[in-house]
Amino acid sequence: MNITFDLDVASSYHHLIAVPSTHRYTKEDNGLDLNWFGRVWMNPPFSKVTPWIDKWLDHGNGICLVPLSSNGRWVNKLWDSKAACMYLPANMAFQGASGHEVKMRWRTAMWAIGDENVEALKRTQIGKVR
Length: 130
Description:
Layout: E1 5-11, E2 21-26, E3 40-42, H1 50-59, E4 62-67, H2 73-80, E5 84-87, E6 93-95, E7 101-103, E8 108-113, H3 115-124
Parallel strand pairs: 1-2, 1-3, 3-4
Antiparallel strand pairs: 4-8, 5-8, 6-7
Helix pairs in contact: 1-2
């Protein structure tokens, strides 16, 4: 995306973390309880997305990665918000903590809120942004 985030709100201090971020909150920090600032990157625990989405929408500046298939109310909150969405390809893979390629078990989407973040998402040309 060619941007640097001010804060990764659900991160790890693992040496293979590739999110360009100035600050990181880990599981031990509990990013839900701390103040968010600047442009945030959020890849929340997929088992508990709702409170993260609520805080991300309230913050209003960032990009997040979330699963596509969910019956959670948070999906409607995102859809009804001003955030833009880009579905990621079904064959998308990420680098896992071991350094090996990990194929996603389910489809994912990236959401952006804030004009600069929406433009950054579009620049990736990974998929169509709506």
